[in-house]
Design brief:
The protein has one domain: P-loop containing nucleotide triphosphate hydrolases (Rossmann fold, 3-Layer(aba) Sandwich). Helices cover 34% and strands 27% of the residues. It contains eight helices and ten strands. Helix 3 packs across helix 4 and helix 3 runs parallel beside helix 5. Bound molecules: adenosine-5'-triphosphate (ATP). The site of adenosine-5'-triphosphate (ATP) has 11 residues, from strand 1 and helix 1. This is ABC transporter ATP-binding protein.
């Protein structure tokens, strides 16, 4: 589903170039629930931004469902991302002039879904996230945790092919965080690939594969670790 080959990203500031992703090559399958870990500054958010198709200042190859993302122009990339990807941002990225219900509805507006069905999906999602009473409020009228829930609801409502989440539960208390991770697990079992960045061991435990970045390099990757050892295959 996702294939990155030698993806590199650097930032230039004051004449010096700082590398944040170094020859990252990864394959992610549609059924995977991947956790990206690593120390602060290791490049985790940068990698997520590449996968989210928000960043185009990188080198290398990125294939998504057979589409060569590195060959798309900005509009084609944005269209593909809107159709296929849900993203939970660390800093929520809600639209300030839209209500909670309108923010949650946004991904559906890019799809060809009848109005009545859309309304039912939004109502159902508001209910699941216990936000019905808040549906007409604007983001600035919500707490940080409530804004985070709206961001999560918006990323999940259209059952994207790929869900990306950057510290998705950082502002939630542990019970809420656990409920969100259960929702992620269910979404994954229904066919959404998930890539989450987290420092939380509890959240990481929901993943089926763990990738550790250090200084922009893939330092370790548990992919394949669950495969049976060679002698078992032979016997
Ligand atoms: N817009 C930018 N301009 C310059 N440098 C940047 C920019 N964005 C990120 N960086 C640098 O890239 C490096 C990797 O940042 P990134 O946010 O990907 O790390 P991270 O692993 O997600 O860290 P954290 O766990 O603290 O969120 C850091 O050294 C950061 O300072």
């Amino acid at each position: 589903m996702i294939e990155l080959k030698n993806v590199e990203r650097s930032y230039r500031a004051g004449g010096t170039e700082t590398w944040v992703l170094r020859r990252v090559s990864l394959t992610i399958q549609p059924w995977e629930f991947v956790t990206i870990m690593g120390p602060s500054g290791a490049g985790k958010s940068s990698l997520l931004n590449v996968l989210a198709m928000l960043d185009d200042q990188w080198k290398g190859e990125f294939d998504f469902d057979g589409v060569a993302v590195h060959r798309l122009n900005r509009k084609q990339r944005a269209d593909l991302a809107r159709q296929k990807i849900g993203m939970v941002f660390q800093s929520y990225h809600l639209l300030d002039d839209m209500t909670v219900a309108e923010n949650i509805d946004l991904p559906l507006s890019y799809k060809d879904i009848p109005r009545s069905e859309r309304q039912a999906m939004v109502a159902d999602t508001l209910d699941r996230f216990q936000m019905v009473a808040k549906k007409d409020l604007y983001p600035h009228q919500l707490s940080g945790g409530q804004q985070q829930l709206v961001g999560i609801a918006r990323a999940m409502i259209h059952k994207p092919a790929l869900l990306l989440a950057d510290e998705p539960t950082g502002n939630l208390h542990s019970k809420q965080a656990q409920e969100i991770m259960e929702m992620f697990r269910q979404l994954n079992q229904e066919g959404t690939a998930i890539v989450q960045v987290t420092h939380s061991e509890a959240n990481a435990a929901y993943g089926t594969r763990s990738i550790e970045l250090r200084d922009g390099w893939v330092h370790s990757d548990t992919a394949g670790a669950a495969e049976p050892p060679l002698q078992e295959v032979r016997s």
